[in-house]
Amino acid sequence: MRHGEWHKSSRIGWLRAAVLGANDGIVSTASLMIGVAAAGTGRGAVLIAGVAGLVAGAMSMAAGEYVSVSSQSDTETSDLARERKELETDVESEHRELAAIYEGRGLDPALATQVAQQLMAHDALGAHARDELGISEFLRARPIQAALASAVSFAVGAALPLGIGAVAPQSALVPGVAALSLLFLALLGGIAAKVGGAPIATGAMRVTFWGALAMALTAFVGSLFGVIA
Ligand SMILES: [Zn+2]
Question: From ligand 1's centre to the CA of 111, what distance in Å?
Answer without folding.
Answer: 18
